[in-house]
Amino acid sequence: MNTPYQFMYVSVLSPDASPACIADIMRVARVKNMALDITGLLVFDGWRFCQYLEGPEANVIELAHTISRDPRHQNFSVLHQGPLTGPRHYRGWSLGYALSADETALPELEKQLGPRAIDLLQTLLPRLDLDPAS
Questions:
Q1: In sequence order, what are the residues at sequence separation of 6 or more whose Cβ sits closer than 8 angstroms to the Cβ of residue 10?
Q2: What is the CA radius of gyration of the chain?
Q3: Residue in 8, 86, 11 with CA at minimum distance from that of residue 53
Q4: d(CA 43, CA 100)
Q5: Bridge partners of residue 99, in order along the sequence
Q6: pLDDT tens per residue across span 51-108
Q7: CA 116 to centroid of chain Cα atoms
Q8: How does DSSP assign the chain, residue by residue?
Q9: What is the pTM of this model?
């Protein structure tokens, strides 16, 4: 299955995890995503995560399943998944990282489902401290 696919979820930092774990998450994910031809963005506000992934369907689904079991976060909730129509949103980023200082942004995003969630994420980008390094 090489159909382009997209997946987006939100979760919260586990009480047993430190926000410092983000550096390790990013380091490992960027290497793994590059090998799997997955691109995307991870947004963190100090408490909540929102991640958007895009790439070959089987790879994205397998990675999303692995992420859902990561003990560094909990309350994993899928906002959208399905075929990617059109070009990738984050072409060239094995995993971009954005820090949100706006405590209302991710809770608002969490209320959206389907393509509306992806559209809202796109509108949030200018308000985020973005590090697109791959």
A1: 48, 49, 50, 75, 76, 77, 79, 106, 109, 110
A2: 13
A3: 8
A4: 7
A5: 44, 129
A6: 999 999 999 999 999 999 999 999 999 999 999 988 998 888 899 998 888 888 888 8
A7: 15
A8: ---EEEEEEEEEE-TTS-TTHHHHHHHHHHHHHHHHT-EEEEEE-SSEEEEEEEEEHHHHHHHHHHHHT-TTEEEEEEEEEEEPPSS-SSTT-SSEEEE---TTHHHHHHT--THHHHHHHHHHGGGSEEE---
A9: 0.91
Residue 115 sits at φ, ψ, to 5 deg, of -60, -25
Residue 132 has which token pair? 């697109």
Q: Give the dihedral sign, CA 78/83/85/91.
A: positive
Cβ neighbours, 10 Å, residue 25: 20
Q: Which two tokens stand for residue 40?
A: 């995307």
Which residues have C-beta within 8 Å of that of residue 20, sequence separation ≥ 6?
Answer: none
